[in-house]
Amino acid sequence: MLLPACATWAAAWAAVGAPDAGIDGWMTAASLWALAFIVAGLLCWATLDRHGSARRALNTPLGDGRDTRTTSSRRRALLVAVAATTLVVLACAALAATTAAAGLAERARSPLTEAARARSTVDVVIEATTSPRPMRAAVWAADEPMVRVDGVLVSVDGVAAADVPVTVGLSASTDVEWGTRLSFAARAQSLPAGESTAFRLVSPDRVDPVGGPPPWLAWASGLRHGFADAAAGLEGDGAALVPGLAIGDTSAVDADLDAAMKASSLTHLTAVSGANCAIVTAAAFGLAAACGLGRRSRVVVALVALAGFVVLVTPQASVIRAAAMAVVILVGVASSRRAGGTSALSVAVVLLLVQNPWLARDYGFALSAAATAGLLLLAAPLARRFAEVMPVPLAIVLAVPVAAQVACQPVLILLDPAIAVYGVAANLLAAPAAPVGTVVGMIGCLLLPILPSVGFALLQVAWVPASWIALVAHGASGLPGGRLPWLSDAPGACVLLVATAVGLWLLLDRRGGRTLRRVAAVVLVLLVAVPIGLVAGPSVVARASHPGEWDVANCDVGQGDAVLVRSEGSTALFDTGPDPAALGRCLEFLGVERIDLLVLTHWDADHVAGSGAVVGMVQTVVHGPLDDERSSRVLDPLIAGGADAVEVASGRRGVLGDSRWSVLWPPARTAPGNDASVVLELEGRIGRAVFLGDLGEEAQARMLADAAPGRVDLVKVAHHGSADQSERLYEALSATVGVIGVGADNGYGHPTDRLLELLDRLGTVPVRSDRSGTSLLTATGDGGFRLWTERSAGDVAPRP
Fold first, then answer.
1. Same structural domain for residues 495 and 591?
2. For the chain, first and last CA: distance in Å?
3. Do 696 and 729 belong to one domain?
């Protein structure tokens, strides 16, 4: 079943993205079905011909032609086997392609498609298909943090609509759980065809729950909330990890712990997967056996327990993969047929991708399947090989994390182009604690509503292994050289895949000659050393040439804006400049590998055309009013790369590390353009700073009247220092530093003499990218800054 599973995955991946590539999804499906029918015809012919040949052989006297008949029969048998396998492969692939084409057609017919084109506001009713999840960078609506909710469309403007998937950002106080129906007015944005969600609903008005979850879902909501509240009574990082270990709830994990878990390759411990499902089904099966139930009754009990567990933890990608695999195995048990692990995984993958082809592009699903395949296919051979040089128990313990890490690493490279050096060691230290935290925490979760004291006591027990895991994560992530840079995207994944295959062959297969093995070893060294040298070498030299501590960086990206701000380990980027290569050089030079908050002030190319350099790096994008294709071209790749996108207007707030930010402009429902630039005020270690985008004089005056920002320490000068500025605004700001993103010999005369004279009169020191190149500002704590540029360095004192 491995071949059909791989073919189904490839077909689903290509089919869901067919419109993005300008291909008709129905043509893809039809082509696969045509090939399947051709192969089916060949199979019928070969089968009938084989039977006819057998009858003729019975009527033919034995003689010298016996060997010829045997050879011919074997050839026909081989042809039948190949044709049958090919037919199954094509049929599975065609089913996935057909499901994808039908889903894409449903999206195209949705009334939200026309609403998105017209940028009109529509009244919608959606049904939530997930529990709320926090934004990966904290964003507030009014006085509440925002959460992301996925759902399916129920109706548009009072008319029933097809169940196309949608996503919306809501205030955390909204009473919503899996199965809740919500009514609100919002605008729709179409998302790329390859995205599992068809539309993003933006700027929702008042949200009204119009229906609660059905009873078979409602019970789990109270259990989850009670468990989270009880765990919050514990202390430290262990309190945040207990819900993650037990039921996969990572909402309490902060940015620092999340980064440490990722850097040490321990995030899988808080992702509900096969181990959790195995524990639940085995416990239910064993309890049913202890009660004297028959085999099929035990299977029914295990299936009911598994279904309840999926409802409790919500159907994440890794959960449904593990659950489907468990169902395949249980069905095999019920029918007295043993289901091998690899076959069960393959069948589960085929069934799930046929049901939902968009899972083919889900990283969580890919990592879950890859880790399981690694354990099934590599753990035993690796354990046997390790047992030759170490005790057998240690070999088995070591083989499990190595197998999972090796299988997952090519996928992880697509998410983060680096290799976690201490990942295996961290897993060896943390993995033994995970089952204890999982089992004890899960039992505590179930007992909390019945026996609160006993349940909380079990949570305290689970806190101990959870705290140990957090300690290991922080320790591993803090070690030097823990992250080896690697080639990014598909080339990096392919090179690593080849290197992994060569390394496994050298380790596990001893049949090759000495010369061949030496050649393979040299190839392996080159496959590892060359990518690391290409990526790490230039960046190490570049980073050594500038101070490591800085708070604000004005990137030299030519005639455009790209300003970085760091705060307590988190990084924000204001606009991306006109050129991805220029922005990429700046990020590499500064060693920036993750953007927690990307602020796209407006949609002009000199502010957003460089966004390709940060695809896959961004956690959350905030932006102003959408502008049809101009905004879609920028946002679609970022969202496909895993970013949350939030349209903001004045009043929206959030946090960046230990800094707080708020949006001063534009007002809600402003038409896109320069005067709708997102103006964001940030307050933290750098004091107070205002980033003005390309706001013109008239809009600046209106913002001053509406928001009254007051004095700041740093201002990002509007519109590259054009003459279209409000003197009253700059007088009110009276900044110590004015950051100007501008290209040398730009042809616009930016920055203008009028602007420079205004800054000089106010005592605001201009920091210009055309003269200084990339500039770094470090707050001194008294309103001043240390300034380092590619061409000079010094201090900028605050105005008395």
1. no
2. 75
3. yes
